[in-house]
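Subject: Sanity check before I submit

Could someone independently write out the structure tokens for this chain? I want to compare against mine line by line before I put it in a report. The sequence has 256 residues.
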Amino acid sequence: MKKLLLCTAALTMFAGSVLVLDNKNAMADTQQNGNGVQTNTYFEVDNSQNSTPAANPDNTGSELNNPDQFNVLPTKATGDLTIDAVPKQLDFGKTNENLESNKVNENLKFGEGSSYYYAQVSDFRKSHTGWNLTANMSSMNNIDPSLKGNFLQDSSITFMGNKVNGAYSNASKDGANNGVNTTSPITLTPSSGSVSMMDANNGSGSGTWLNQFNQINLNANRSDSGKYEGRITWNLTEGPGTPGQTSNNTSNSQQQ
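---
Independent answer below. Compare away.
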């Protein structure tokens, strides 16, 4: 009888051990059932050969069709930080008025004569450290080669009613609340150098932005009869600027 009891006890202990081992295996199976396994994803973006088309200022989420018809010059510039578009021409027309004050004062208005006046910048860099768009005005010289050195006296061009809007993926945004800045008025003269027209703060300015110039004024003193022309050169540099102030940096040049 004692032997039988011992054997029974031994079997009972062995069965308990098996039960414990089975519970441990069940826990291990639960930890290794595949929960949390990961699949890697990958995609590369290279903007070095991409350009951003001129946006439609009346519907900034879309491209401007036939930009030449609207006096817009697309640069077709490629890269991560680009000037995309500027006004093709600022044609202030002709005056034959009796200038009693000896002053020329001619105006261009946004949308007048189907002309849009704006400058557009895109930033698709890896890190957004801000940027600065500047404009530099040359003197307006008589186009007659025999009158070399004859220029429009004391000429200046003033941009007024300036406003920054986002374009494409930024179409619902305005610059003032998103760290992309301008000021108004901004005046260029042949002696003012490169003047900041629009800038982005450090950490801002990603995507596409345009600065709409609602009125542009030409001012000059009375000059000799003739046809005069000049150039505005646009430059884009990394890092913020101060709109309306002179900047010495030059890069990514575009002449109007």
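---
OP: Matches mine. For the report I'm noting this point. DSSP finds one helix and 19 strands in the chain.
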